[in-house]
Every structure is written in structure tokens, then in C-alpha cells.
Design brief:
The protein is of the alpha+beta class and about 240 residues long. The chain has one domain: Glutaredoxin, CATH 3.40.30.10. Helices cover about 55% and strands about 10% of the residues. The protein contains 8 helices and 5 strands. It has helices at about 5-50, 90-110, 125-140, 145-155, 165-175, 185-190, 195-210, 230-240; strands spanning about 70-75, 80-85, 115-120, 215-220, 220-225. It has a 5-stranded mixed beta sheet with strand order 1-3-2-4-5. Helix 2 (about 90-110) links the parallel strand 2 (about 80-85) and strand 3 (about 115-120). Helix 5 runs antiparallel to helix 6. The longest helix is centred in the first third of the chain and has 42 residues, at about 5-50. It is elongated. The N and C termini lie far apart (about 115 Å). This is Disulfide bond formation protein DsbB. It comes from Paenibacillus helianthi. Keywords: Disulfide bond, Membrane, Oxidoreductase, Redox-active center, Signal, Transmembrane, Transmembrane helix. Belongs to the thioredoxin family. DsbA subfamily.
Length: about 240
């Protein structure tokens, strides 16, 4: 026996269907807005944690290169002092490190010809400053671990045009990759911008000597006109001959 369809029920269903669809659409839009807003709020919070040079307190006096404050490799008795000026966000710095640093250390540092120094020239963006201050925090715990940080951070370098070296990224990166330091102290130093003065001081000193990009190299106090490996090694050989 066939059941008869109640025309009133069918009409009610047809009326409710658009309303239900409308509710679903509103819920989906609300969820999208919530996720987007949450993402933007998180991004804003990350940006708020990035340092500015204008926030750094203290008077900076440019008075020499201050070798004694820089991360270094090699013997203090070396006749030639080489400084690399670098920005951890700089793709060219990453390429130079990957292509030449180990060879340079083997041929010039380990042989006693050169004492090699790293000086920050953090200029690309605010996360450049933060990455540099993280390096300083590690260096003040361990000169050896600083060079480990250099190699590994360049290997994990993000897009130059994007803010990637955020506090969250650096804390996670160091925790996963740099062992043998006091991580809690490092975390506090990073969050408190403990070594931002040192980063700004490096920047001011480098600028006063004519540094305007990265990587740049200085041999015995003389800034080289280009960043080629050939130019660097030629300048070192010339300085070695002059010191004999």
C-alpha cells in the first residue's frame, strides 16, 4: 500500500533547505575568518618580537675593528687577519660559505697563515638582526659552537625576501641543531635581545669602513673591492709577503 506524501511536509522541507544551506555557509565563512585572523595574529606577534636598531640603548663609539670581540678561528700569531662581514639572510654569504669556507680554513687558517674573524653586517631585514644576535649569544657561550651555528643556519636559510628567522624559528633551530650549550640561557638572551648592542656595534663599525653589502672581506684592515675567492687569496698572499 503506497503512502501519500503530505504536501505541507514537502513545502516545509523546500523552505528549510535554503535556510540550512545558509547556516552552513555562514559557519564555513566564520571558520575561515577565525583561521585567517588567528594566522595573522600569530604572524603579527612574531613580527612584534623582532628587534629594531632604533630600540638598542647605549652610545656606540666607532674606535677600531675590535677584533677581540669577534668570533674567530686560527692562531693569534698569524701575520694576516681576515674579517668576513656577513648577514645570515644573505644568499651570497650562504654560497660563499658552502663553496669556500672549509677550503679556506684548511689552506689558510689551519696552516697558521691567517686568523679569521666573523663580523655581523645585518642589514637585510629585522630578522637579520635577530639571527645575528642569536649568533652572538652562542658565541658568548662557545666560540666553537658559533661556527657550527654559521654552517647549519646557512644550510637552513630561508627566502631572502621573506621574514623567516623569527624568534620561534631560531629557538627551534638551535634546540634541534646546536648541542652542548646552555639552551635556557640562550633562550633568555635571544628573547631579551641581550646582544643586540653588539650586533648594532658591528653594523656601525663595518659601515664606517665602507662595508655596504655582504659578503665583504677585509685583510689586515683593508677592505677588498670585491668578494671573489681569488681576490681574497691574492690579498692574503700579498699581505704575507709584505710581513716577511
Amino acid at each position: 500500500m503506497n503512502k501519500k506524501t503530505n504536501p505541507n511536509t514537502s513545502a516545509n522541507t523546500r523552505r528549510l533547505l535554503p535556510m540550512l544551506l545558509g547556516v552552513v555557509v555562514i559557519l564555513l565563512i566564520g571558520a575561515l575568518v577565525f583561521v585567517t585572523t588567528k594566522g595573522k595574529a600569530s604572524e603579527t606577534s612574531e613580527l612584534d618580537q623582532l628587534p629594531n636598531y632604533t630600540d638598542v640603548k647605549g652610545t656606540i663609539v666607532v674606535d677600531g675593528l675590535k677584533y677581540e670581540k669577534q668570533p674567530h678561528l686560527g692562531s693569534e700569531d698569524a701575520k694576516v687577519k681576515v674579517i668576513e662581514f656577513a648577514d645570515f639572510k644573505c644568499p651570497a654569504c650562504k654560497k660563499w660559505t658552502a663553496a669556500y669556507l672549509d677550503t679556506f680554513i684548511k689552506d689558510y687558517v689551519d696552516t697558521g697563515k691567517v686568523q679569521f674573524y666573523f663580523m655581523n653586517f645585518a642589514f637585510l631585514d629585522r630578522d637579520s638582526y635577530l639571527a645575528a644576535s642569536a649568533g652572538e649569544a652562542i658565541y658568548h657561550q662557545s666560540n666553537e659552537k658559533f661556527w657550527e651555528y654559521v654552517h647549519k643556519l646557512y644550510e637552513n636559510q630561508g627566502d631572502e625576501g621573506k621574514i623567516w628567522a623569527t624568534q620561534k624559528f631560531i629557538l627551534g633551530f638551535v634546540k634541534d641543531n646546536i648541542k652542548g650549550i646552555d639552551y635556557n640561557k640562550f633562550e633568555q638572551d635571544l628573547k631579551n635581545h641581550t646582544y643586540m648592542y653588539d650586533v648594532k656595534e658591528d653594523f656601525k663599525i663595518a659601515g664606517s669602513y665602507g662595508v655596504n653589502g655582504t659578503p665583504k672581506f677585509m685583510v689586515n684592515g683593508k677592505l677588498l673591492p670585491d668578494s671573489s675567492y681569488e681576490g681574497l687569496t691574492a690579498a692574503i698572499e700579498a699581505a704575507t709577503s709584505d710581513s716577511k
